[in-house]
Amino acid sequence: MKIAVITDSTAYLMPDQIAGLPIRIVTTPIILDDQTYNEGVDITPEEFWAKLKTAKSFPHTSQPRLGDVLSTFDELKAKGYDTVLCVFLSATISGINSTISAAAQQIKDQNIVVYDSQITVAMMGEMVLVAGRMAKAGASLEEITAELDVLRASTGEYFMVNDLQHLVRGGRLSSTAGFVGGMLRIKPLLTFNEEHRIVVAEKVRTAARAYARIEELFTAAVKDKDYPIKAWVIDSGAQQEADLWQAKLQKDFPKISFTRTFLGPAITTHIGPGALALAWMLDSQKYK
Predict the structure, then answer these.
(1) For the segment 123-163, what is each residue's pLDDT rounded down to a tens digit?
(2) Which phi and psi (to 5°) does residue 2 adopt?
(3) Does this model's pTM top 0.70?
(4) Which of 55, 136, 183, 221 has the fewest C-beta atoms under 10 angstroms from its C-beta?
(5) What is the set of domains in the chain, with CATH numbers?
(6) What is the number of other CB atoms lying within 10 angstroms of the CB of residue 262?
(7) Which DSSP helix (H) or strand (E) runs through 261?
(8) Continuous H helices in 40-174
(9) Angle between helices 96-104 and 66-78 (to 10 degrees)
């Protein structure tokens, strides 16, 4: 068995991170002012954030193109990969998992396995990297998915946004939550619930309080863990604030490694510019 891994561009993995690994990335299209951009190919996060400031219409995304995924399957098959593990963003966010699962039923000479990450961005990217490293080392499909189950169960995240309407318009949050947020002028803290859907976890009045509350929740979440944690500070065009927050968190939690990364165009489309997030999961490289 020769295994490759496919993910979508919302994993926000850089070429140097996947170099030498059997990992392929399919792009997510973003439509803004009637023009389609391919995330990670012809528009950078910085360019997208700048375009949003003068956009005439609300941006939206579509699933990675089925044709792109199928052609990637063919390319991998030609290189001897008889098994492909697909790790896409959460099925509660995108229909790509069900689309590929349906298409896989028609593929008879290659084993296509769709694994729901139940998450996105950095944590999904970490899962993909772990799967790619294990595949390169000769691990079985069962061993890889078992490791992904462990990683997936260890994830946690909170993020704050400037405007809930991006999530409401994109169908990722109920209109009631968006209405309440706008009326109270709150700084909502969002997370994924047990059903892996984006929900408002708490409502606080100021950005300072939002930072403090996320840190309190993070402290409680990792306090009694008997395994090493890795964490990410993530932003959608709030780089300076994110850099300062990372520095503070690294000082307050010296045993945890905090990495800076970003929310690219596809995810920014749904949560809006200026968002900040703290995400974490088991650090598998230190755990072994």
Answers:
(1) 999 999 999 999 999 999 999 999 999 999 999 999 988 76
(2) -120, 120
(3) yes
(4) 183
(5) 3-28+63-153 (3.40.50.10170), 156-287 (3.30.1180.10)
(6) 23
(7) strand 257-262
(8) 45-52, 66-78, 96-104, 121-136, 141-153, 165-169
(9) 50
